Amino acid sequence: MHVLFLEVQTESTWSVASVGPGFLAAYLRRHGHTVSIFTIALDHTIDDVVAAVCQHAPGLIGLSLTTRQWLRARGIVAGLREQLDVPVIAGGLHPTFAPEQVLAAPGFDLVCLGEGEGALLDVVAHLEETSSLPTHDIDNIQRPGQPRPPLRPPLDPLDELPFIARDMLNERYGVRHMVTQRGCPFPCTYCAARMYNEMYSDYGRRRSNDSVSAELAALRSGAAGDGLGLSYIIFLDDTFTINHKWVRRFCRVHTESGATPFSLHARVETVNQRMLGELAAAGCKHITYGVESGSERIRREVMLRKVSNQRLIDVFRWTREAGIITTANYMLGLPHETRADLEMTLALHHELQPHDFGYFVFYPYPGTPLFKTCRDLGILPEGYETMPANHRQSILTLRDLTNDDIGEFYDRFTAIREASYLERYGSSLSTSGEKTVRDTYKHTAATG
Which helix (H) or strand (E) holds 196? Predict the structure, then answer.
């Protein structure tokens, strides 16, 4: 059977496609099926999408969706169903934690909860055998009007999975995206990715160093077949630096293989000066840290991030001293946040001195503890499901901040960033090529 994934763009700038379809495509192909992808750009009409689907002639359409993609995806799938009768399945963070909402929308036939490789293979096999949607229970697959299904155990070990299907990603210039683990052990209340651990009790698994090295070797040798080679690696793991023993071995092996430069995401609680030095020696050029707020009260009481401002300041300094570029990510407009808290975030930013930074207005993702907090506090408005997530305005009715307050601080962050670009590059943010730094990492705000 042929499966077509639709990648729904919500930003106009280049960014990597969802990695989920890349893993699913590799798994389906191993079992004899064919897979392709069509990226729905911002200027594509529903007629463009219908024409693409007809050209690919799939037996099943799949979408991997974050909450930020949901509203546009909902309209697209409804438009497709008006003209075509192709089964549609949705997976990813939003369908996993809001399956009833997705299944109530026109055109969605099935939702995949959690990890999808084995479940999607079962759905495809059933469709190929019967030419009809499954009417019986398949673990991880929810049907309209049915309760949440049981979950099959996560795939383990991860080394048994085929390498990601590179043709499913929007990779350029030899910049490659890698995933070495699934799951996150930290209890952050705002992050939907953490909730997979709650679903599965223990979701954390990591590929062996041998598996990661073999995939990188295949990319260096051109085995990916796309002629791009390997010039830079972006590790997409939520926290690359969790297991120090694993990281140190990676650094040794990667150095011996040529030390292709790379970037990663880390938490300041998981690094020290020794590790940063080893990462730098192995080719690490850039680390993104989640700072979130300059208010220790907000981090501790609202986010469950028990890290001090001093630790953040120390780690950013250590990282600079190691010769690694830093990016800091901040949130604005959190429950219980005040103008004083936002002033603390600005003050901490100046102490951290990151090379670059991202700043986003908080959006409560379904399934997260902070979503429940917003609902319990009565600050989640009626019809929130139809309110798009954007980076400048909050959908919440906050008690201590107005949208004018949030807009003011958003503008102040923008002015700081604009000034730093003018000083560093002699050009504005809108014209500087360095704008891609934040765009490349913006997807993390959805898993994050």
Answer: helix 195-200
